[in-house]
Amino acid sequence: MKELPITEFDMQTLPQFIQLAKAILPFMEFNTQQTLSPLLRAYEFSCTMNYYSRPESLRIAACSAKPHLSLNSPIQDILSDENIMNVILTYCPDNFKNILSNFKNYNKMSDLFNILNRDQNGSNSFLNPAQQKMYEAYTEQLNNLNL
User: Fold this and answer.
1) Per the count of CB atoms within 10 A, which of 10, 30, 133, 146 is most buried?
2) 3 Ramachandran zone, left/alpha/beta (phi>0; psi -120 to 50)
3) Using CB atoms within 10 A of its CB, is residue 126 exposed (0-12), middle (13-18) or buried (19+)?
4) Torsion of CA 143, 69, 71, 52, to 10 degrees
């Protein structure tokens, strides 16, 4: 199993003993796991709610990308931010890392095509009409993905 670092969110919102309890939980008897795991999750939830009810919780905003992401942020905003991607990829399974990497590379390639595809008069010059149509259809499909 892949070792994952603790997230900044967990460091900000939870006491350290929670990580210790979660680390030892898989080694306990099943009945103990069954009893403690929901209690740990409930305690985590309680700590998170308490954290965000305090004014000093604004300090977590320092980790956020600028501009701040929302639930409706386009995937391109995430893929184009190297700091965000480096953190996110740490927690992704390999197959999802590959998908994100391919999508990110496509966005870079798309940006390059868009630059090359316009001459100084603004007319298309890099792709022939059939290639341009295929490129636009592919771009539309990728833009409509809900990852």
Assistant:
1) 10
2) beta
3) middle
4) 170
pTM of the entire predicted model? 0.56
pLDDT tens digit sequence for 43-55: 999 999 988 887 7
Contact between 62 and 12 (Cβ < 8 Å):
no
- Taking a C-beta distance cutoff of 8 angstroms, is the pair 85, 92 a contact? no
- The pair of structure tokens assigned to 24 is 């030892």
User: Residue 30: what pLDDT?
Assistant: 94
Bridge partner residues of 16 (DSSP): none
List, as one string, the DSSP characters of 105-147: HHHHHHHHHHHHTB-TTS-B-SS-HHHHHHHHHHHHHHHT---
- Answer whether 128's CB lies under 8 Å from 122's CB: no
pLDDT of 39 strictly over 60? yes
Structure tokens at 41: 């999750």
